[in-house]
Amino acid sequence: MTNPAECQTVEPTEPTFSAWLKEGTNTTHESLDKRIMSLSPFSNRERYALFVRTQSRLHQAVSDWFQSDELNNFLPGLKERDRSAAVLQDCADFEMPESDLKADQQAAAEVTISDFHSALGWLYVVEGSNLGAAFLLKYARKHLDLSETFGARHLAGHEDGRGLHWRQFKTALDALELNEEQKEVALEGAKQAFAFARQNVEQLLAPATP
Hints:
Layout (H helix, E strand, L loop, with lengths): L16 H22 L6 H22 L2 H6 L3 H4 L2 H10 L4 H12 L6 H29 L17 H13 L5 H26 L5
């Protein structure tokens, strides 16, 4: 029989910052993914182009933070992770009208990411989306004959592999010394990023649904 005096109390392990962000946004994330797929973005190139516009707005909204020298000091290699140029090239591949490009640029410009900690949440969402992009790229290849060099550039994975690239980002994110208030600001930023993505899906993809 075990001696109670010999029993040790196991303290619950506090989740990492990235795991905590995932837990706080998981329901919203799943809802967004299901909504996007319900709108058949891979049924034809016209619908896919609308999906690309939603991505253009999202990536342009956060691009300045990917390029931020301050953030790059804490998250090395962040500048190279910026996919805004790739998604704009995808837009060019589809020869999108200048009016659409300007509308998307304006939508992105109207987004306010107030500070460093809020930006962390946005970056977590945008960078994390590259994992799911692997499945989207397969759909784009199979159904629309697109690739990393035409129309689906922003869905391409890193040459080192998506998994490793994402783990490296999470490691840097988890190494940040943040207090509870700063973490909450980051979580709110992540929620805002998902809300902005959902807003663009409803504005661009949903109205064009057959």
